[in-house]
């Protein structure tokens, strides 16, 4: 039995294949760590938790992120090292931190603005390119691969490349 008043729950490295339904009743939960399991999907009830700010689901077997993330209170999403092959950028605009590195995402040029995003890691995906610096006005850490085919980094994004190389 999990206490419904917990604010932080660490279920990493537990061999889980599904998210426990008891989490749906944890209305005070702020941090949920489900990393290093074998979870294939995140149920909508996770995104309905009213105070959840940080969700860590890295190192699982996720293939997608539910659209319900867009209406959630989540600010920090860590979903690296999964099998995610598609995301809908407009569902992620409320995030402050996004790590989707080491997935299979192939969406090409992203022209969606992310007004609150301070940290972004999109390395090791087939194709994700942010259209320009105006799409990331609050960014302080931006990790990405070189543009495909040795194309130029979009105008204005060179600054972020130089910051990372220091």
Structure description:
Helix 1 (44-47) links the parallel strand 2 (31-33) and strand 3 (54-56). The protein has a seven-stranded parallel beta sheet. Residues 149-166 have low confidence and may be disordered. It has one domain (8-165): Leucine-rich repeat, LRR (right-handed beta-alpha superhelix) (Alpha-Beta Horseshoe), CATH 3.80.10.10. It is globular, with a radius of gyration of 16 Å. The protein contains two helices and nine strands; from the N terminus they run ββαβββββββα. The protein has 166 residues and is mainly beta.
Please give the domain count. Answer: 1
CATH C-level class is Alpha Beta
Q: Number of DSSP strands?
A: 9
| Strand portion | 15-25%
Quote the average pLDDT: 88
**What is the CA-based Rg, rounded?**
16 Å
Query: Describe the biggest sheet?
Result: 7 strands, parallel
Structural class: mainly beta
* Largest sheet strand order: 1-2-3-4-5-7-9
CATH architecture descriptor name:
Alpha-Beta Horseshoe
Give me the CATH superfamily. Ribonuclease Inhibitor
Question: Which segments are poorly predicted (pLDDT under 50) over 5 or more consecutive residues?
Answer: 149-166
Count of helical segments?
2
Classify the helix fraction into a percent range.
under 10%
- Global geometry: globular
Oligomer: single chain
H/E order of the elements? Answer: EEHEEEEEEEH
Query: Per CATH, what is the topology?
Result: Leucine-rich repeat, LRR (right-handed beta-alpha superhelix)
What is the rounded distance between the termini? 48 Å
């Amino acid at each position: 039995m999990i206490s419904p008043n917990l604010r932080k729950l660490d279920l990493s490295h537990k061999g889980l294949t599904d998210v426990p339904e008891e989490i749906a009743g944890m209305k005070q939960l702020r941090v949920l760590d489900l990393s290093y399991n074998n979870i294939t999907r995140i149920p909508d009830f996770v995104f309905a938790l009213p105070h959840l700010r940080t969700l860590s689901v890295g190192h699982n077997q996720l293939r997608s992120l539910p659209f319900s993330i867009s209406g959630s209170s989540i600010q920090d999403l860590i979903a690296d090292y999964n099998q995610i092959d598609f995301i809908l950028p407009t569902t992620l605009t409320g995030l402050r931190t996004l790590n989707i590195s080491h997935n299979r995402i192939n969406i090409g040029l992203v022209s969606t603005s992310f007004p609150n995003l301070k940290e972004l890691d999109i390395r090791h995906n087939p194709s994700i390119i942010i259209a320009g610096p105006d799409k990331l006005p609050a960014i302080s850490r931006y990790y990405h691969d070189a543009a495909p085919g040795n194309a130029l980094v979009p105008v204005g994004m060179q600054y972020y490349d130089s910051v990372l190389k220091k």
